[in-house]
Amino acid sequence: MSVSPETLRQILAVQRLEFRKRFLGKRAIPVYLLALIPLALFGGRAVVLLLGGLEGSSLAEDRVGYAILYRMLILRFVTFFGCVAIFVPLFRGDILDRSLHYYLLAPVKRSTLTLAKYMSGLLTSLVLFNAVTLASWCLLYVAAGPSVLFDQLGSFRGLGELASYLLVTSLACVGYGAVFLTAGVLMKNPIIPAIAIAGWEAINALMPPVLKKISVIHYLESLLPVSIPQTSGIQILADPASPWVAIPGIMALAVVLLTIAIRRVRKLEVLYGVE
Amino acid sequence: MIVFDNVSKFYGEVLGVNRITLTIGPGITSLVGPNGSGKTTLMNLVTGLLRPTRGTLSVCGIPPNRPELLMKKVGYCTQYDAFPPGLTGYEFVLATLRLHGFTEADCRVRAGQAIAKVGLQEAAGRRVAGYSKGMRQRIRLAQAIAHDPEIVVLDEPLNGLDPMARAETIALFEGFAKAGKFVLLSSHILHEVDLLSDRVVLVHHGYIVAEGDIPGVREEIQERPAQVLIRCDRPSLVASRIFELDSAVEIKIHEDRKGLLVHTRDAEKFYLLVNRLVMEHGLDLEAVSPADEDVQAVYRYLIEGEGRPS
To answer: Inter-chain contact A21–B82, Cβ cutoff 8 Å?
Structure first.
């Protein structure tokens, strides 16, 4: 399927407007603050260890420590809630500030508009949360000395782990982005489903294997490169999905949800007075 | 043509408009009616912001659920007073033109031209958030016309404009009409609707109560009360003969005794009577003119008076 130059320009116009509205303005501050949390944590640790001349934990302990913090902080908290803050307002924010009609009055197919908005959110979340993942991983190793970081970056294992974390962050943006864009289209108050999904994802580890599979986090954690020992207190995956299932599974979920969102946006009416 | 075929729109159980069958052609058509009568609903239906609950609607043969085709032909200046945050007037018009898919160079040229048409060149570099109500209205108008649409839909377009801007804007609309475009506007400023419109559609409680050119709308009203001004040498003769007609409602003889204002329910009968007086009694007529064949009179009769003579 070919895309006409006019449609491409329209997609770029939507993205340009979205970046300006949501990612360069005051409304973006909470997302940036959220992204700063892991950087402050890993950066603070690096500063304390480097300036204090203290000896940190072993590399093996660092790897496990990062795996735990990545799951609990970067993936389940920062990326999850960051995606809530980025994707929910793509439609719902425009409805609430009564400016959605400017998009609907342009000669843009509603499906193109939905995908363009999703792509603008996706691009922002990918850049932001992958930067957080990359920077926090670097800060973890640089705390033991710059040479340790360069060793990791120069080794197949170190680079492979980093690539896996970046892949998981990217897939989280794809999956959670589709979930929250669709929630913003379907629900008048998408915060309630966001909290419900957060709760469901949080208790995923305690669920029986069948229910575990009905979640995004199950497939994301299946792709993580470092397993967490049982003694850490965090439930590890009992039945991890293979990458051949996890990656297409998340992509398929995104496609299904975006199809639902497009169908709804096609019927969307401007009823600001009752929103 | 903009064609409504038995269109109804309900907001849940609340009526927006009901059973609208209407055809709108080129020229200036004004929707007139009080707040909540359904004017904005009709405009939102034309532009696809709302979908009919029942019936069908087409704009130059395009259904409103095809925005990619429809909005190339239609420009809509809404009443919604919200703008994407942080943009200057120029950036706002430029951003909407980019959404139309024009090339960047074309967008810049069109944005400049549209802003010039509404006379906002000096303020174009300032943020819209700092604009006055009239300036916001004008920049919305620039955004609606920037892509040179065939059909311009304008919801209360004269609101908030100062007299100079109002005159310029009216001239702009007249220019569109002369160029063969469709201009569909709503307004409460009846005097201007009267001067401006080729055609009026009176809307009340979601129904069309009358439509056509203004004298034609009056013709549609059976037993309508009409006011006619007569200047003549013997107003008392005219008055006495008028009272012989059942349709006379009220007569006021002018203080200078050289004219009278007649309020009648049957204007046709009244004009025949005047002709007879001239022929039979040699009445010296200086002038005979309808005193209320404007939108305001029709509006007052049909809407404010709910069909009762005012």
So the answer is: no
Residue A218 confidence class, pLDDT cut points 50, 70, 90: confident
**Amino acid B266: pLDDT:** 76
CA-based nearest distance B105→chain A, Å: 12
Edge-first strand listing for the sheet containing B259-264: B248-253, B259-264, B226-232, B285-290
| B310 in a structural domain | no
pLDDT computed for residue B189 by the predictor: 66
Tell me how far apart the alpha carbons of residues B166 and A121 are, in angstroms, rounded to a whole number: 42
> How far apart (Å, rounded) are the C-alpha atoms in residues A255 and A14?
20
Burial class (CB in 10 A: 0-12, 13-18, 19+), A231: exposed
Using one digit for the tens of pLDDT, what is the confidence trace for B187-238? 766 667 777 888 989 888 899 888 888 777 766 654 556 778 888 888 888 8
B135 and B275 fall within a common domain:
no
**Which residue is listed with tokens 């802003």?**
B115
The amino acid present at B103, given as its one-letter code, is T
CA A53 to chain centre: 35
Per-window interface: A 43-62 vs B, CB < 8 A: none
| Helix count and strand count (H, E) for chain B | 11, 13
Query: Distance, in angstroms, between A13 CA and closest chain B CA?
Result: 5
Residues B231, B204 within the same domain = no
The Cα B73–Cα B69 span in angstroms is 7
For residue B272, give its domain range: 220-304
Whether residue B152 contacts residue B182, with contact meaning beta carbons closer than 8 Å, is answered with: yes
List pLDDT tens digits, range B157-166: 888 788 788 8
